[in-house]
Specification:
By secondary structure, the chain is mostly beta strands. The chain has a domain of 170 residues. 6% of the residues lie in helices and 28% in strands. The chain has 2 helices and 13 strands; from the N terminus they run E-E-E-E-E-E-H-E-H-E-E-E-E-E-E. The strands form 4 sheets. Strands 3, 4, 6, 11 and 13 form a 5-stranded antiparallel sheet that branches. Strands 5-12-8-9 form a 4-stranded antiparallel sheet. Strands 1-2 form a two-stranded antiparallel sheet. The model has no long low-confidence stretch (mean pLDDT 85).
Length: 247
């Protein structure tokens, strides 16, 4: 069977199809329960950089990003056709006992996120896509960018929807940013192009100042119990065709 090894474009450029992959770029930020949150810039760091919003801040590992270089720009030897953004949410805690002290009754065990915390994030968080620092290519609430991956929540009898026991006296209510089916991905009408060496950022922003009720109603923010180091970890995927590093 014939295979296209190289394609010459009308402008003289040569493309090598085998250099392109559907493996997405991804980047992680962490959301806390503060009422004065600054925008959290995804894709702003590479391996070893500071994870925005994390305690410390925490240094990024391969589980946080596959961004090359210092972040903020796409590596010179890469290229991206961005078809969609997908954002998944995880609950991170620093003290298991404090996390459940003062926590809402139906809070699930991390890394599950409670239904109310997910809804608060969706209510209060916007996503801004910027390319080349020139204009917004997209600005919409985080719920517009469903994760479209993961697994359905499942629990043993001790924490099922009807379970009542001395250890777990309440059932749980788990939330997620969209359904887990890959078919729930929402694609852009046309792909956005990011050239090698071009600035590229996906910022999580908080128009109300944080994940909170705009009218300042008490107890309207994220509930992490007494665990001051808890966070909701948001992993952002830039889904599309990516020219992999070739040098």
């Amino acid at each position: 069977m014939a295979q296209a090894l190289k394609i010459r474009l009308p402008d003289g450029r040569t493309l090598v199809p085998s250099d392109w992959t559907a493996s997405p770029l991804f980047s992680t930020v962490e959301i806390d329960d503060a009422s004065n949150l600054s925008p959290l810039p995804g894709f702003s760091y590479g391996a070893g950089g500071d994870v925005p919003g994390s305690v410390g801040p925490r240094k990024a590992t391969a589980a946080d990003t596959n961004m090359q270089g210092q972040g903020g720009i796409l590596a010179e030897n890469e290229e991206l056709l961005l078809y969609a953004l997908q954002i998944e949410l995880f609950q991170i805690y620093s003290n298991g006992e404090n996390f459940f002290t003062g926590q809402e009754l139906f809070a699930p065990n991390p890394p599950h996120v409670s239904l109310t915390n997910v809804l608060k994030v969706q209510r209060s968080t916007s996503v801004r896509l910027k390319i080349a620092n020139t204009k917004d290519y997209c600005f919409a609430p985080i719920g517009f960018f469903p994760a479209a991956m993961g697994t359905h929540a499942g629990f043993g009898a001790a924490r099922s929807g009807r379970a009542v026991s001395a250890t777990f006296p309440y059932p749980v209510a788990v939330g997620s940013n969209g359904n887990v089916s890959s078919g729930d991905q929402r694609e852009f009408a046309t792909p956005h192009h990011v050239a090698g060496g071009e600035a590229f950022a996906v910022n999580l922003e908080f128009p109300y100042g944080g994940v909170t009720e705009p009218l300042g109603i008490s107890n309207s923010g994220l509930n992490f119990g007494s665990d001051t180091g808890a966070r909701i970890r948001a992993r952002i995927y830039a889904v599309g065709l990516r020219r992999r590093p070739v040098a």
